[in-house]
Design a protein that fits this description.
Elements: H1 16-66, E1 75-76, E2 96-97, H2 98-101, H3 112-116, H4 122-125, E3 155-157, E4 180-181, H5 196-199, E5 207-211, E6 256-258, E7 269-276, E8 281-285
Parallel strand pairs: 1-4
Antiparallel strand pairs: 1-2, 3-5, 5-7, 6-7, 7-8
Length: about 325
């Protein structure tokens, strides 16, 4: 039987050209959508990070209502790092940190013997490392202890700067919300602590907690000055001890309003999440957290020549600073 030439032949598949066109369209769509998906993921991480720090802020203010309006210290008691045997030399010994003190308020009750963490053993503490202490955008590797991974804490109480003009240790208070209490090599006890009712007249404009993505910031640990959130410039660095005015930015977890990683710090306005003394949270550019009008000589967020006030603005309890 012969085939009728007027009847078209049925095809069983695509031609090579058609396949190439379809593949090109799919590749084009992927190229368009991937950046948008990446941006959406980072937006979600930033929102989760903001939610975490806001929860910590609420926990701190709730803690204060139970303790005569005093917020928790960044750390209390024991010895600061650098004055210890090697096994304890990184994260301190016999100390209570702010996350220990608010543990019950974030649904993470830690046994007292583990809060003090004299024998800092990460496997024991791992079940008590609350997710709320970590920012999803925090990808800085923590330095391990001799006993393993210490875990990750992405936030700290804001300390501002120590008033070193005072000769008495009991008068050397910080301009921020909280610092540390320890006995230094001279046997001096240095208390830094704010009272929400008496010391913070503009709670909605005073920073209480900020992000600190650094290698030494770990749950229930405190490595001396490495865990003091003194000013916004310190947030740009993954390793403490590099906070100088001429440094290049090496860490921007939520991008920047201007500038980028690798730029001089004076050219970057990075985005970070903060909790304020009234309990609310916000994502703010670092340059917008301090007062360049009250401190016209401030040229970078690392400015520290004014020991009483530092960069002022939201980093100081004084609304006139």
């Amino acid at each position: 039987m012969t085939r009728n030439p007027s009847v078209p032949c049925r095809r069983n598949g695509f031609t090579l050209i058609e396949l190439l066109v379809v593949i090109s369209i799919i590749a084009l769509l992927i190229g368009i959508l991937l950046p948008a998906l990446g941006a959406a993921r980072e937006t979600a991480r930033k929102a989760a990070c903001l939610s975490n720090i806001r929860q910590l802020g609420i926990a701190v203010t709730t803690y204060a209502t139970d303790y005569k309006d005093y917020v928790p210290y960044n750390s209390f008691g024991g010895s600061q790092a650098g004055q210890l045997e090697p096994i304890f030399a990184r994260y301190g010994s016999g100390i209570l940190t702010f996350d220990d003190l608010i543990a019950d308020y974030i649904g993470n009750p830690i046994p007292t013997e583990y809060k003090v963490a004299y024998d800092f053993i990460p496997p024991i503490l791992q079940p008590y490392q609350a997710d709320v202490l970590g920012c999803p955008s925090d990808d800085v590797e923590r330095l391990p202890t001799q006993n393993g991974d210490p875990g990750k804490r992405s936030y700290l109480m804001t300390t501002g700067l120590l008033n070193t003009s005072k000769t008495s240790a009991t008068q050397q208070v910080s301009s921020g919300m909280a610092g540390a209490v320890w006995t230094d090599t001279q046997g001096l006890v240095r208390p830094w602590q704010a009272n929400l009712a008496a010391d913070v007249p503009a709670a909605s404009e005073t920073l209480m907690l900020g992000e600190q993505h650094q290698e030494d910031n770990v749950p229930t640990g405190m490595n001396g000055a490495a865990n003091w959130l003194l000013n916004p410039g310190w947030q740009y660095m993954e390793i403490w001890g590099t906070a100088k005015q001429d440094d290049l930015v090496d860490h921007l977890p939520h991008g920047a309003r201007n500038g980028k990683v690798g730029d001089d710090v004076d050219k970057v306005n990075g985005n970070f999440n903060y909790a304020y003394a009234d309990g609310h949270g916000a994502t703010v550019g670092t340059w917008d957290t301090y007062d360049t009008e009250a401190h016209p000589s401030v040229k970078s967020p690392f400015y520290q020549s004014d020991a009483d006030t530092g960069v002022g603005g939201q980093w100081s309890r004084d609304p006139n600073d």
